[in-house]
Write a structure and sequence with these properties.
The complex is a heterodimer of chains A (514) and B (97). Chain A folds into 2 domains: 194 residues, Glutaconate Coenzyme A-transferase; 234 residues, 3-Layer(aba) Sandwich (Glutaconate Coenzyme A-transferase), CATH 3.40.1080. Chain A is 27% helix and 23% strand. Chain A contains 16 helices and 30 strands. Chain A has a 10-stranded mixed beta sheet, with helices on both faces. In chain A, strands 17-16-15-14-18-22-26-27-28 form a 9-stranded mixed beta sheet. A 3-stranded mixed beta sheet of chain A has the order 20-19-25. Chain A is globular, with a radius of gyration of 22 Å. Chain B is of the alpha+beta class and 97 residues long. Chain B has a single domain, classed as Ribosomal Protein S5, domain 2. Helices cover 35% and strands 25% of the residues of chain B. Classes of the chains: A alpha/beta (514), B alpha+beta (97). Chains A and B meet through loops of A and helix 1 of B. Chain B: This is Citrate lyase acyl carrier protein.
Chain lengths: 514, 97
């Protein structure tokens, strides 16, 4: 049977029934009463947590059919995932559900091997790229992957939708009882934001570290009350690959033009006043926005109450300059931001629930004024795709996109076309973030304002140097430049399902036809 | 028109296409490598074929490596490669543009 949700996406009725899912209806969360779950606690005095090898801890904890998790704070410098998965595959364990905060490129080969060996049969993640995305999009995994935003992962863990049996969490320092943080040691990554959910809700919490320090270790982001085992390994990560070193500002004139217009949209909006808050991504244009915004804040004698999200050095620079009063930090994208956390008490580590969970008593994203987000595609209904490429293959991540898009002014900054691929399209390949939560699209030729935001149409229609278009006209302009692409071909088989942040299904990703 | 020598035009930079033209006996044979093959492969092949036909080339082996070039770029690189292959670069084929 065919079923359509509120963003006009066809969903497989039988799959929804089988997995007990509801179709997406609305961005509104409301005020429901939620019953959370609690982890099982194996009581201990803590005298016996240090184990000699990964083999020993896997033997003691992981059984067929369990759900295991990892964090992705080491990004492409991660050594922990491959070390642990190697042992699990070699132990012959089968039918695991892999539930990491996300999967980075360095994990791809090992995940594919584990799928082929029958070790991993289910995956839920924020995203996947490269060879793994290709493998899944070509039908390599039998059960559909479930994609969740960072806020939604926190919600799913609290609800028990994701029940983590064993969490393997790499840390650059820990003491023998498991007090740990992400700030000191060799492979530092700053905030442990996503891993804090696993530490709080997994039945078994295993820390892996290359830096066993004196007890008690402070500040303790992960606490001894949560940790079952501490394993000492040679190296947890490659510090040079965790984040880009020094963040360079883009010189690309197209990106600078977009950034300048994004800045104009922000400064002409009703939200640009003392005490405003913002979140920017890590792309070239987003970083350039931070630079323009700094100048505008100085000129208007305005400071921001907080900056949120994945943090980069340009943002921590604003903190040190006093232009931003607090940095609410769930993840650090570069070395500068990661090392700044230790010396700046106003750079607050927040967990994924505090950051963006829709089902709690108040998340940071609910207080957010301005969010600047990117898009692989945006359609004439303002729906955004950050998950599948122009060839229909999985190559992205939900990240915090759906979550941050609930801000009061959500701006998508994207070029009209990339090479021969249009960014503004009649219909996105995969809906990740619904158009109802997107307010303004900024491209190098001009902006389009979501007609549902009549207030913004009035405020933003006469900014000098910022031409306003209907989004349909931007789409036509893009198509005129690149031509009309042949429609992508998919099979009927669903290889992944994309949840909205409330746990409903916003879209399905089908296997590509080759 | 007869292809006299193998000729190359274009680069492997983003938004460009590199066209290599050599002698052929079996009509126009195109080997295309493109990141946008799924969406624009047929269109790129059509533009190359039409451009060669306009230059009265009926047999050629074409090796094209596309990096997301627009039609106008595909056409320009094909003309350049063709005129180099024909040895007619001193007489630009204006009517083909």
């Amino acid at each position: 049977m065919i079923l359509k949700n509120n963003v006009n996406r066809t969903l497989s009725d039988d799959l929804l029934k089988e997995l007990d899912y509801k179709p997406y209806t609305s961005t509104e969360i409301g005020n429901p009463d939620i019953q959370r779950v609690a982890p099982k606690v194996h009581v201990s005095t803590g005298d016996n947590k240090v184990v000699k090898s990964i083999e020993d801890v896997v033997k003691a904890t992981v059984k067929d059919g369990m759900t295991i998790s990892f964090h992705h704070h080491f990004r492409n410098g991660d050594y922990v995932f491959n070390k642990v998965m190697r042992v699990i595959i070699d132990a012959g364990i089968k039918n695991l559900t892999l539930a990491p905060s996300s999967l980075t490129g360095v994990m791809n080969d090992m995940v594919i091997e584990a799928i082929k060996a029958g070790t991993i049969t289910n995956i839920t993640s924020s995203g996947m790229r490269g060879s793994l995305g290709d493998f899944v999009s070509h039908g390599g995994l039998k059960n559909p992957v479930i994609f969740r935003s960072h806020g939604n992962r926190a919600r799913a863990i609290e609800h028990g939708d994701i029940k983590i049996d064993v969490a393997f969490l790499g840390v650059p320092n820990a003491d023998k009882l498991g007090n740990a943080n992400g700030m000191a040691g060799k492979a530092v990554f700053g905030s442990l934001g996503y891993a804090l959910m696993d530490a709080q809700y997994a039945d078994n919490v295993v820390l892996l570290t290359d830096n066993l320090v004196d007890y008690p270790n402070t500040p303790a982001s992960i606490k001894q009350t949560q940790v079952d085992y501490v394993v000492q390994v040679d190296e947890v990560g490659d510090p040079d690959k965790i984040g880009s070193g020094a963040t360079r500002f883009t010189k690309d004139p197209k990106e600078l033009k977009i950034a300048e217009m994004v800045n104009s949209v922000i400064t002409h909006s009703p939200y640009f006043k003392d005490g405003f808050s913002f979140q920017t991504g890590s792309g070239g244009a987003a970083l350039a926005v931070t630079r323009y915004l700094r100048a505008a804040m100085l000129a208007n004698k305005i400071t921001a109450s907080f900056a949120l999200g994945g943090i980069t050095k340009p943002t921590t620079d604003l903190l040190e300059e006093g232009l931003v009063r607090r940095v609410m930090d769930v993840q650090d994208f570069d070395k500068g931001a990661a090392s700044s956390m230790q010396k700046n008490p106003n750079q607050q580590e927040i967990d994924a629930s505090w950051y963006a969970d829709p089902d709690n008593k108040g998340a940071m994203v609910d207080q957010l004024d301005v969010a600047i987000l990117s898009a692989l595609e945006i359609d004439t209904k303002f729906n955004v795709n950050v998950m599948t490429g122009s060839d229909g293959v999985i190559r992205g991540a939900v990240g915090g996109h759906q979550d941050a898009a609930t801000s009061k002014l959500t701006i998508i900054s994207a070029p009209l076309v990339r090479g021969r691929i249009a960014t503004v399209v009649p219909d996105v390949t995969t809906v990740v973030t619904p158009g109802d939560s997107i307010d303004v699209l900024v491209t190098e030729v001009g902006i389009a304002i979501n007609p549902k935001r009549k207030d913004l149409v009035a405020k933003l229609s006469n900014i000098p140097g910022v031409p306003v278009f209907k989004i349909e006209d931007l789409q036509k302009l893009a198509e005129k430049r690149v031509g009309q692409p042949k429609p992508l071909e998919f099979t009927d088989r669903t290889v992944a399902m994309v949840e909205y942040r409330d746990g409903s299904i916003i879209d399905e990703i089908k296997q590509v036809k080759d | 028109m007869e292809i006299k020598q193998t000729a190359l035009a274009g680069t492997l930079e983003s938004s460009d296409i590199q066209i290599m033209l050599s002698k052929g006996t079996d009509g126009i044979q195109i080997t295309l490598d493109s990141a946008v093959e799924k969406q624009f492969g047929d269109q790129i092949r059509a533009v190359i074929t039409q451009t060669l036909q306009a230059l009265k080339i009926t047999a050629a082996n074409v090796k094209a490596v596309d990096k997301g070039a627009l039609d106008c770029v595909v056409k320009a690189r094909t003309i350049a490669a063709a005129q180099r292959a024909l040895g007619t670069t001193d007489q630009p084929a204006w009517e083909v543009f």
